[in-house]
Design goal:
The chain has one domain. It is 64% helix and 0% strand. It is built from 5 helices and no strands.
Amino acid sequence: MFRDKATKKRITVVRALKRAAVPERPYIRGPRYLVHPTITAACAPSLLAIAAALSDDATAFDDDELRAVQSFILDGSSPFFGRDATAAMREAVRLQHTVVRAKTIAAQGKAKQTEGNVRQPSPALTGS
């Protein structure tokens, strides 16, 4: 079903990101929330953008980027599990920029590889 370990890891991170973007219901006993709903609401757009970028099969991502995203949503010492929504949102946006930048760099690399095969229009056709 999965072609390699990297694809399987990326799919599990995407699923975890989608679950983390949804506010959780409060528990009856013990701590009310693992992740406070205000922090989930602050980080949800960035988490969903990261999930969308990671779910694209055409791009390749570095293992360090996946590990950073995974530790943000799964490690209890990350700002995502704290009480400061601003710090959590800043970290989520930083990770989003890292992942989206890697996606655009990979896309630009593919575009540069294919530019050699594309014929440029002659000046007679463009009117210049």
